[in-house]
Amino acid sequence: MMKRSLLLIVPMLALPVLWKLWGAPAPASEKSSVAQADATPAEEATKYTCAMHPQIVSGTSGTCPICGMDLVPVAGSQSLAPEPGGTMRDDSGRKVLYWYDPMVPGKQFDKPGKSPFMDMELVPKYADESDGDDAGGGKPVVTVTAENLQKMGVRTAKVATAGLGRAIRATGIVKENERSRREIASQVEGRVTELKASAVGDAVKAGQPFYSLYSPELLTLQNDYIVALETGLDDIAAAARRRMKLLGVDDGVLDTIAKGRKAMEEVPFQVPADGILSRLEIRKGAYLMAGAMVGSIEDLSTIWVETAVPEGDLPAVRVGDDATVTLTGETDPFEAKVDYVYPEITPETRTGKVRLVIGNKDGRLKPAAYVMVRLGPRAVAEGLSVPSEAVLRTSTGDHVIVALGEGKFQAREVKTRMSGGDRTEILEGLREGEEVVTSAQFLIDSESSLRESLQKLSGGPHAGH
How high is the pLDDT of residue 153? Predict the structure, then answer.
C-alpha cells in the first residue's frame, strides 16, 4: 500500500518541471508575477485625479476641466521619498507636509489614500503653498494663479509715507452775523410822533431819518443850549450839547439848532448803520421810556454759516482754516474762513458746531438758507498711508489684503486713524514698501475668511495628527 502511494506522489511533484521544459504556459498566478517583474516604468507612471470629481483621471498634472481644482496624484500610483523631519517628497519633487480632505481641511494625514469622510482622494499640502501663520498676521495665505489674477482684475499699491490733505463735507445753515448787528435803544423818555422805517426787512442806510420824538427833557435842554449860546456862556452851551448827544441826538440836528436858535418840539433820530431792519419795537404814537428797545439792524454784507461736524473730524478743524460754501441749486462756491469751533458736543447727534464767516456783498446768501460746506483740505503730519479703497471695514475692525508675491495673499488687521483725499493713515499692521490689494480684494478676503473659519471649526491647522 505504501509503495503504491509513493508511485502516485512522485509523478505529481515532477509535473510542473516537465510542464515548463515542454514550453507549456505557466499558471495564472505565476504569469502575474512575471508580468509585474517585467513591467516598464511607463506602465507605472503616476496618475492624477480630481479630489471633487474622481472620474477625471489624467497621466499628467493640471487642473480639473469641471471645477478648475488642481489634480492630485492617485493613491498608490506615485513613489514617495522620505525626508528628514517626518515629511516626504513625491514624484514631482515637491515636499509634502501632509495630506488632507478639502471638505475637512482641519484633519491631516501622513499618507495618501481615500478620505475617511468622503469618497474622494486626499490632497497633498506642499511646503511651498503652506497656509501657516509664518507669513505674519496669523491669517491663512491664499494662492491665486496668474491667470485668475488677470481675470479678477487684481491691482496693488505700495504702503507709503505721505501727508494727508483732509477735507470734511457737511451741511450748514446761514445765520446773521451777530457781530454786525446793531441794537437801537431809546436814551430819553418821549412820544413817537413820526416813524419813517415802519416794516421789518426794510433796507436802511446810515443817516436816513428813522423816527421823531417829542420829549420834554430834550425841549428843556434845547432851550438851555440856545440861551447859553446867545449869552456867550460857552461852558454851559457845551455841556448842554454834550448832554443831548449822549441822549442820542445827531450832530447834524444839534448844528441846525445852534444855527437857527430855535428849539425843535419833535426831535428827529437817524438810522445808525447800513443794513436790514430785522426788528422793530415801536409804532407811531407809542410812548418810550429811557432804555426801551427801538429795534435792531442787521448788516448782511458779512454773514455766518453754522455747520455740524462729526465728533471724530473735529480735531482736524482749526480756526482760520479755509472753507467753501455752496448754495443749494448753485455750483459757484463762496470762499469762507473758520471763525470759531464751539467747545461742546451735541449728545443726540455726536457732532460739534463750527462757525464760518463769509463775505456777502451781493446779498445772495440769505439767513436760514441751507448750504453745502467743504472744510479743507488741510495738510497734516506725514505718516504711513494706503489708498482708502484698500481698507476693508468690518464690525470687528479694519484689515487689508497684503500681496506677499508669487500669487500669494494674506489678510492682515490694521489700525487706522484718519482719511484724507483718497488715502487712509495706517498706525499699526503695515510697513513701508509692502503692497496691498486695491481692487478685487473682496474675493480674496472671502476665501481667506472661509479658510480661517474651517480651521477654527476643525480645531486648528494642526488638528488630526
Answer: 85
